[in-house]
Amino acid sequence: MPAKKLNFESAMGRLQEIVERLESGEAPLEEAMALFEEGAKLSALCYNTLDRAQLKVTELAVLPGEAESDG
Fold this sequence. Notes:
Blueprint: H1 8-24, H2 29-61
């Protein structure tokens, strides 16, 4: 797959395709290894995207004035 910037939904969709292909057991070893590598990269991308989203939600959920009282 080209090294273009994927959004979360596209990355998850491609990751699902990879999982289905690997679970089918029909991919030859070299293809399976390449798919596994691509899947690992997509998984990391999705994890990082979710991590950033969680941090943003946490940041937005802090009540006004609450952050100043911490220090």
